[in-house]
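Dear colleagues,

As part of the handover before I leave the project, I'm documenting each prediction I ran so the next person doesn't have to rerun anything. This entry is a single chain, and its sequence is reproduced below.
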Amino acid sequence: MSAETRFLREPAGGSSAGFTLLELLVVMVIIGLLAGYVGPKYFAQVGKSETKTAMAQIDAFAKALDQYRLDTGRYPTTEQGLAALVVRPDSDAKWSGPYLKKAVPADPWGRPYLYRQPGAPS
């Protein structure tokens, strides 16, 4: 085997190829610093998107409830709830819905929305 072939196959000085422990530690520290800086910013954005989604859903409910009130002369009762925007209540002859395109969704955190008729005590 010629000297050129041996040079291409083996690292200089005959040592084995690879990373040293120090190099690996430096890379891990850099990755840790990046994760510590980027992680909180990323998760803060996730929380903001859930809040924005909830606000958009509440705005859609408000518009549908106002349309319901214009048609029937009153808002749904607490017992009828937001379901009155999708399914005709028995007591509302002037109902012209459905006022929502789909069934009432859960909030972005997976819990159902609570509705109380305006003026009802908490």
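DSSP finds two helices and no strands in the chain. The radius of gyration is 32 Å.

All the best with the project,
I.
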